[in-house]
Every structure is written in structure tokens, then in C-alpha cells.
Amino acid sequence: MAPKRPKGAGAFPKPVESPAPSRPDPDALYAALDLGTNSCRMLIAQPKGSGFHVVDSFSKSVQLGSGLERTGRLSRASMARTIQALRICQQKIKRNKVHRMRLVTTEACRRAKNAREFIRQVKRETGLTLEIIQPEEEARLAVISCAPLVSTKTEQLLVVDIGGGSTELVWIDISSIPRRDRPAAIMRLHAGFHPPESPFPAAKVVDWISVPLGVATLRDQFIDVEDDSARFALMSWFFEENLAEFTPYQDVQAREGFQIVGTSGTVTTVAASHLGLKRYDRTKVDGLRMTSDQIDKVIRGYLDLGPLGRRRDPRIGEDRQALIMSGSAILQALLRCWPTDRLSVADRGLREGLLYAQMSADGVLEDGPF
């Protein structure tokens, strides 16, 4: 499968503005739901300053894309599991009286032949309207969710979102923007990778790519390889081959002023393992900077454990153990490709990006530091 490349400027139409927009309610609640290839996640939040306060949340592994690589269709069992999870989300939305929301689905539904049928079934059984978003918007939302973690010293930024069915990479140049304005300039990408002219500078997107290989789809590509170490090595090199066309500044970029931010369950699990957390703590993981040596040590530890040991390791967790090695293979490939010995860990992603984008568009976020 070839990576999906951008089709140039204008991929996102300019929103049509209402002639008399109603004033947004600063106390309103917003919902953001991300239905991926492996997981169903939702946040309900209230705007607070330049960010938001989470009121309710939901996360469950539903394995919507199970068997998709083989059949090209969503299975009945996968759809049933997912609809059961979506019913819980619908109850939370109703209980919190949420009216502003975006409920999106990504790679599994982009690829499945019966995706439209599934979306109609979701609407019929839960009342929720799912929206299939394209790779560029998925990448853009991941980027803006990570804006608060960007260092003011960063001039070149690579944001990597490792999903279940695809991996998005976005390279951003913020070298011409005043240091204190750099995180806000990234946030302005909520209007698109090529935002309209504005007195406030937006970050420059140098290049981006969506590779149709995530933790679930990459694992399924090599599921027939029995040797654990060999399978890991094959996955890592295969993923790197799929990055061949995405090489902005690869040969000339200096380490100084370069930052890579990784957002995914893989990255946060590796961080939790590095910290030796017996129980996951988002406050210790989100924003953590890990060296490449620390990441390699964790991955070598996973390989030493073997499949049975990983299954029993409480730091990995039952939901993550089947996918941690394919995710680690992607992470290792990324660190081989770019000139950095550090990675910033983001326990945030599509849901947070959806919330920031909605709130920014409604004008309910305050200007200022995150």
C-alpha cells in the first residue's frame, strides 16, 4: 500500500460564515469522539482559558478493524462491539446535555467496503452521526492537539500520530515566528494546513504524509512470522520503506532546534514502562521527554520478555500487549530516520484536536499561554 500524499492547497474548503452568528456560550460543553481501527475514545469538555477542562471521558478497545486487512470489510462481531461502546458514549452525551460535538472515524472506515452501511447502522441504533474524516484532517487535528507541548526553542517540528490503521507525520517550520508565539501559531492550523491570510502568523506546513500502516495493520501484515525478533525487525524496516517519499530536510537538518512529538498509545505505553509506573498516570507521562537510548532500552526489554512476558506485564496492559511490538517497530523506524536523540511524549491526539478546533472556531478560547 502506498502512502497517501497531500493533494495540495485547497483540500479544505473555506467555511461559510453565517451573516449573523450567535454569540457562543462560554459555559457550553463540547464532545469529541474518535473511532479508530482499534479504539473508541471520547472526551466531553468545557472551555477554560486558552484550553479546556474535561468533564467526562470514555475509552475502550473495540478492534473495529479486526480482519479488515484480509476481507476488506468490517466484521459483524467488530461492528457489534463498536456499537455497544457507542451506546455508552451516546448516554454520556445525553446525560451531559451536549449539543456541540464532532464524532469522527478514521482509517478502518476509510478502507472498509461496508463502512457506509456501518455508519447507517450506528445512526439507527444509537442516534449518533459518525463522520469519516480524510487523512489530511486527521493529521492536522493531531498537530494542533500537541501545540501546548511545543518548546519555544523549537524551529522545526515533526508531529507523529501512530494510530491503529494509519500513521500521520507532519513537518512544520516555525523558525520565522517569534518564540513566544510558536505554540499559538501551530494552533491556528485548525483552519487548515493552508490557512487564509491573517494578521497573526500561522505555522508553515513543509510536508505531511499518511502511511496506511498503524499498530493493527502493520501487525496483520506480518502475523504469519513466528519468530518474535524477526517479526519486529521486518515490521520496522517495512515501515521505514513506506517513508521513502517523506524526507523534508532529512540530510541537512541539525539536532538543535528540532523537536519530534509522538502521540499514540504506543508512545505513552513506552513512557510508562520507562518510568516503571505500576498504574498509569497521565500527569507523569504527558509532556515527558525521552532519549532515544531510553526508548531503545524499553523496546529491548519488551523483546526480552517475549509474547508471554508482555502479556503478563502490567505496565503494558491487556489491551495494548498484542499491539505494542508493531507500535514499537514504527517508533524505532522514526528515530532512525531523523536527527534527534529525544522524543516528546503526548498523551493527547485526535480527540483533543477536535475539541481545540471546535472551540477555536467558536471563539470561546482566550488568547494567552496554554
TrEMBL record:
| Domain Ppx/GppA phosphatase N-terminal, first and last residues per copy | 44-359
Q: Which GO terms describe its molecular function?
A: pyrophosphatase activity
Stored CDD domains? ASKHA_NBD_AaPPX-GppA_MtPPX2-like
Residues crossing the lipid bilayer are: none
Q: Which Pfam families match?
A: Ppx-GppA
Residues of the region (Disordered) are 1-25
Checking PANTHER family in the record gives: EXOPOLYPHOSPHATASE, RETROGRADE REGULATION PROTEIN 2
The protein, known as = Ppx/GppA family phosphatase
Report the source organism: Antarcticimicrobium luteum
